[in-house]
Specification:
Length: 427
């Protein structure tokens, strides 16, 4: 299914007058504060978030998976679904592939299809946390950290293969997340596991093209429950620095223990020039992979506040960040969920752009705790939805993407095209 700009423009008509009124009112209010609403709209219109190729179908838990019907069964259909998202939101202009779940057997054809939707290829992701058919060595006890040299060599070779696929698609980065760790004391030697991981990552790093980056992701637990080799941002940073200037840390919002101050981690990594990118989701207890902003929207705003400040005071020359949604959609229509996530990310970014940084710094200098909180919450409590809608209109997207998605009966049409019992690959 394809949604054209003409269709979106026609369906926008009913809401256009109200949007113009709301935007005009907010623009006037922001002008009085010395904030250029049009400049924020331009920044929002330029902001793009990658959709992972594994997020277009219903996800699951350890207990079950409930298909929604009409799910994409191949990479071409996944690109078509991202094209739908991008047509509506004008924010989903990139895709992140997971190999071997989505191997581009016809790279030229895949690139052409992505181009037709205005989509580029973001980071490619390796998979050494699952055994694949006809795989010689098992990853049951580890991959890049494993005690067996043959297992490590196989895992390194897979990452090199992923780089090769990425080069075919003009991707410029590799994301490495490891499940390596131990579930019981005595299972592994901590020091040897970390040393093996560093050496393996250095071998992968040596294969990176000169204009590529490597992102090293971390997670405190799961699937190993006693120890995880790359369990926190400090370990990720240590390994990145041990590889070289093209290696960076990747922050997944769900990959932290409850109540972790993620915004402080962000500030530290930007200060070091080693923040590579983000995987957006939300959580209540652990790595819940819920809709972005559905549980902790204020924390998301605080994170973006540090991102905006960090990139405006980029003394360490931290490169532009890679943005991606990494969520699991077991209850909702995955496309509607992704639309909601994209909206939440834009909301937090827009709110952060409203923060009066000079006033906040003055309050901090005077240790005026109350005023500092008031300045942040004034930005957070501003209804910035008219700015986001205006940014979508600027790129000929939908004023209300969910409403148009439902009015056009997108899910029903996908079920007619693909069937009710389809299952997306990689889940």
């Amino acid at each position: 299914m394809i949604i054209t700009k003409d269709q979106i423009n026609d369906l926008n008509q009913n809401a256009s007058a109200e949007q113009a009124e709301h935007f005009g009112f907010l623009k006037l209010a922001l002008d009085k504060k010395g904030i250029d609403a049009d400049e924020i709209v331009s920044k929002l219109a330029d902001f793009q978030v990658a959709i992972p190729s594994w997020a277009l179908g219903s996800g699951g838990t350890r207990f079950g998976r409930f298909s929604i019907g009409g799910e994409p069964t191949n990479l071409e259909q996944k690109l078509d679904d991202i094209g739908l998202l991008h047509a509506l939101t004008q924010t989903a202009g990139a895709v992140s592939l997971h190999i071997p779940w989505d191997i581009p057997s016809d790279a030229a054809g895949i690139k052409q299809r992505a181009d037709s939707h205005g989509i580029v290829f973001d980071a490619v992701n390796s998979n050494t946390f699952q055994d694949q058919n006809e795989q010689a060595q098992t990853y049951k006890y580890g991959s890049l950290a494993d005690r067996q040299a043959a297992v490590r060599e196989q895992a390194v070779a897979h990452n090199v293969e992923v780089i090769r696929y990425g080069k075919m698609l003009d991707s410029k980065s590799l994301t490495v997340w490891l499940a390596d760790g131990a579930s019981f004391p005595g299972q592994n030697n901590f020091r040897q596991s970390l040393q093996n991981t560093q050496k393996s990552l250095q071998e992968i790093y040596a294969e990176l093209p000169s204009d590529w980056r490597m992102f090293i992701e971390y997670k405190p637990y799961e699937p190993s429950f006693y120890s995880t080799v790359i369990q926190d941002w400090g370990t990720s940073l240590l390994l990145a620095e041990g590889c070289g200037e093209k290696a960076f840390c990747l922050v997944d919002l769900g990959h932290h223990l409850p109540n972790t101050n993620i915004e402080q981690i962000v500030a530290t990594l930007i200060m070091k020039g080693k923040l590579g990118g983000f995987h957006f989701n939300d959580s209540k207890y652990g790595d819940d992979d819920l809709t972005v902003g559905s549980i902790k929207p204020y924390q998301l705003f605080l994170i973006f506040n540090e991102l905006v400040y960090g990139m405006n005071h980029n003394d360490a020359n931290n490169p532009p960040l890679a943005w991606m949604i990494d969520a699991s959609h077991n209850i909702k229509d995955p496309l509607e969920d992704l639309i909601q996530s994209l909206e939440a990310i834009q909301l937090a970014y827009a709110q952060a752009l409203l923060v009066d940084t000079p006033a906040l710094q003055a309050a901090q200098a005077e240790s005026d705790v109350v005023l500092g909180q008031e300045i942040l919450q004034d930005a957070y409590r501003t209804d910035v939805r008219p700015l986001i809608r205006e940014a979508r209109l600027k790129r000929e997207g939908a004023i209300d993407p969910i409403a148009i998605y439902r009015k056009m009966k997108v899910r029903e049409n996908l079920i007619k095209e693909r069937g009710l019992k389809t299952v997306a690959t990689g889940l």
